[in-house]
Amino acid sequence: MCIFADNTKFLKICTLNKLVKILLSLFVLLSVIACARIGKPPGGPIDEDPPVIVKSKPVNYATNYKRKTVFVGFDEFIKLEDAFTEFTISPPLEETPLPRTKGKGIVVDLHYADLDSFTYTLDFGESIVDNNESNPLLDFQFVVSILPHIDSFSISGRIIDAFTH
Asked: What's the pLDDT tens digit per position in 82-140?
C-alpha cells in the first residue's frame, strides 16, 4: 500500500511487506546467478579402454553369408579416423567400400563383392576409436566367407630340384 502526499507530488511510502518481497526476490535472483556456472561436470576416471565389440551381423568368421552388408556393434559410441588410409579389404574389389558409423556401430556395404567365390577380410587397422578419448581398437579384422568354409589365402607345396632328383 502506498500513501500519496498530495495530488501534484507523489511521495511513495511502501509497506514493509513490499520491501520484504523485493529483497527476497533479489536474494533468489542472486542465488540462481551464483549457482549457474558454465563448465564441465566432474566425471569419473579417464576412459583408457578401446571400444568392445558386443554384436555383429554376421558373426566374425561367418560362412555361407550371401548378404551385401556387414554390421559390427560396440559398447560405446565410436568414430572412424583415417578410414580411407587405414581400411583395406582383401581380395580387392573394383571399388573399395568405405565403412561408415551407424549409432554405436560400423556398417560396410559390399555391393561390389563377388558373392560366388570368396572369403573377404575387412581390415580396419587403427581406424576405429571411441568417441570421447579416441582410444583405438588395434588391428581389428572381420572375416566373412561366401563359401561353406574360410579360405586361408595360402598356398603350400614342396619344391624339388629336377636336375638332382
From this structure: 988 999 988 888 888 889 999 999 999 987 766 667 888 999 999 999 998 899 999 89
Instruction: Name residues whose C-beta falls within 8 Å of residue 114's C-beta, 6 or more positions apart in sequence.
Output: 146
Quick one: which H or E segment has residue 88? strand 88-90
Rg, Å, the chain Cα set: 34
**b/e sequence 41-70, b meaning 16+ C-beta within 10 Å:** eeeeeeeeebbebeebebeeebbebeeeeb
- Please, what CATH class does the domain formed by 53-145 belong to? mainly beta
Domain range summary for the chain, segments of one domain joined by +: 53-145
Contact by Cβ (8 Å): 57, 70 = yes
CB of 150 closer than 8 Å to CB of 63 = yes
Residue corresponding to grid cell 500513501: 3
User: Side by side, which strands form the sheet with 69-74?
Assistant: 53-57, 69-74, 105-109, 100-102
pTM of the model: 0.66
